[in-house]
Structure prediction request, 203 residues.
Amino acid sequence: MTLANAPQQQRSYDLSIRILNAAERVLQRDGLESFTIAAVASEADVSVGGLYGRFQNRDELVRAVQNEIISRLGRDMSAVLAERFDSLTAMLDRFVTELIAWHGDNRNLLIGKGSEEAADACEGVVTLALIGSARRFEREINHPDPEIALRFVVHVLLASGARNRLSNPAMSQRFIPWPTLSDEMRVFANRYLCAPARLTEET
Prediction:
């Protein structure tokens, strides 16, 4: 990048970020069914033609938003897990609380076309963050394979949160209030990882 081109490239980058931020707001506010290029252009205060100059279609823009959300989730979970904890239980309590809150705050953002791939990517970045941070508490994990146990916990947390996101709080009896789900998932994670007896043991 030459010095002459630097301001132009910075403006182009800033515009792309503005479009992505606007697209995330529209998707969060209106849901996927009402998500349109025109709505995003209006939110970002850019022309529809200018938006199409950066994203070929609606699906590509949705995927770009999802990719940004996944990257941010990985950064946020890594930051949470980098805090100082004196026990695995303390770390799990904080981790589960933040992850379930993330589900509640991003209800409309990981649905529709490409959602399965996005969910897999979410699980990947969160699992990587948790395994890396839990190594210092590995002796507290009462499982023959601590990594498998941690992967399972992340899988259950994300699946439970995703199922809850798809439930309509006003119409579905299957919806669990987010604070309640957070409490129950903290209990689950701690008991599964730290309980003295494995559920698979024969009595």
